Amino acid sequence: MSHLPLLLVALTLTLINLIDVSARQIPQSPLSVNKEDDHPKVPIVLGVMSKCPDAFLCESIFDQVLKRVGPKVDLELTFVAKLNTSAEGGITCLHGPSECSGNIHELCAAKHSSRDKWWPFVQCLNYEGYQKIGNVDTARRCAKASGIDWDESGVGECIEGSEEEGRELLVKSIARTESLNITKSCSIFIGGELRCVRDGKWVDCEEGHTANDFVRIINREYEKLDPLY
Hints:
52% of the residues lie in helices and 13% in strands. It has 9 helices and 7 strands, in the order H-H-E-H-E-E-E-H-H-H-H-H-E-E-E-H. Helix 3 packs antiparallel against helix 5 and helix 5 packs across helix 6.
């Protein structure tokens, strides 16, 4: 009997094994990974006050924006307030001490939870309404509604603990706000540039102020960034 068929089978199996090993040894091309995960994000900063009606409007518009281009952006809230040694807690907020508390609640949520939780938390506070922002019970309800574990996440301790952590977050946020020369709530920065301000009316919005306008700007800035950084 000829051994040729057996030799062909053996050679075929060897070749298959070599191909499999080679394939496993070839490093994955950076272009074959999920580009959206590795691509640099477009920074967005919203300069706001937690009890400001103009901030409510901006945040409602950006809720629409995030639903469309959320994976392309890094979102930050920074708060408009003033350091004041003679004020309660050493900080003055335009809409009173409860706004300072609301600012702290949002900063605590942002620090101790991912955006898919802290952003709904902010939206929930806005839905609860002006009078309830800054109230711990309201923050608790919104944390639960947003999937934030009050105790395990660190949000509860940040809000209800010694108050030092929350106050420190607000002090740092005020410094950040001042570094950007933000004085109005709501001020919208996209890609490091001031794009629009809502101050009773829309001002300095050369490229528009709708969700569609902001999505267009974000997509343009996103395309400018190098995915192979």
